[in-house]
Design brief:
Glutaredoxin; globular; alpha+beta; 4-stranded mixed sheet
Length: 85
């Protein structure tokens, strides 16, 4: 299973929903990068994604996006194959 990285904050309902969906799809480990505790990580997230909101999710080298993007990918049947790589 590819590495899953999620940029998040302490109080973020969409981060919690993304984590729950990923776990339902068999992801056991999510590397969380807390941008609220490290401003340099916020800057790095914006540079990598062009987005300012959390969560920002990476599966392997692919930027999936936020929770809505993750949920759409799952609905379209694209999440499980991505996790299987």
């Amino acid at each position: 299973m590819p590495k899953v990285i999620m940029y998040s904050t302490a109080v973020c309902p969409y981060c919690q929903r993304a984590e729950m969906l990923l776990k339902q799809r068999g992801v056991n480990e999510i590397e969380k990068i807390r941008i609220d505790m490290d401003p340099a990580q916020r800057d790095a997230m914006i540079a990598k994604t062009g987005r300012r909101t959390v969560p920002q999710i990476f599966i392997g080298d692919r930027h999936v996006g936020g929770f809505d993007d993750l949920a759409a990918l799952d609905r379209d049947g694209g999440l499980l194959p991505l996790l299987a790589d």
